[in-house]
Write a structure and sequence with these properties.
Elements: E1 5-10, E2 19-23, H1 38-41, H2 51-60, E3 67-71, H3 81-90, E4 94-99, H4 104-112, E5 118-122, H5 130-134, H6 142-152, E6 157-164, H7 171-180, E7 187-191, H8 208-220, E8 225-228
Parallel strand pairs: 2-3, 3-4, 4-5, 5-6, 6-7, 7-8
Antiparallel strand pairs: 1-2
Amino acid sequence: MRISGLQKVTLLDYPGLVACTVFTPGCNFRCPFCHNSGLVTDVAHADNIPIDDFFALLNKRKGLLDGVCITGGEPLLQEGLEDFIARIKDLGFKVKLDSNGYSPAKLKKLIDDNLLDFVAMDIKNSLEKYPLTTGLATFDPQPIEESIALLKEGRVGYEFRTTAVKEFHEAEDFRKMAKMIEGTKAYFIQNFKDSGAVIAQGLHGFDRETLLGFRQIMLEAHIPCELRGVD
């Protein structure tokens, strides 16, 4: 289990809770708009924060923090993740996992073992545009479909979310994504903003009016939808 980044306090990453956020290196996707590119493209040189240092922080923050967010990269690629989460839970903290949904068996194991309280899964695009959006030459949609179905069982709190990028998304994609996540309880459209550390340069977000149009598509499909990152 590797930790390559740590945000000691966040009011945004875990809905309704005060939390800290752990960043893990490595990912099986190469999304051009990824804002944590250093954790994806240069894993060997990513920082290593000692696990004991992290748990020392947690022990000091008991009563101040409610939960821990684990993000990446793709955390489900980490060896020892299950033991790491179990140790967090033993200290009384809630755990939120961010995932691209491409490892449904690992996700199911964590849910079955009651190690997760909340999961945020990225819906990158309509399935036929996943290869383009994830930077992969070939793509099997089945793992994504399995993870969506797993979360929709409602055994753990969850949300689906899409980062909207002008070069990758159009209205028809949101119509198709609405069908992918039909019956979901929470979906968010996040506007792309160039952090300066993305994998590919020259990408753009959408104006507010266009994003509201995408939201309306989801609402008309009976998908509860809100916007994030919109001025």
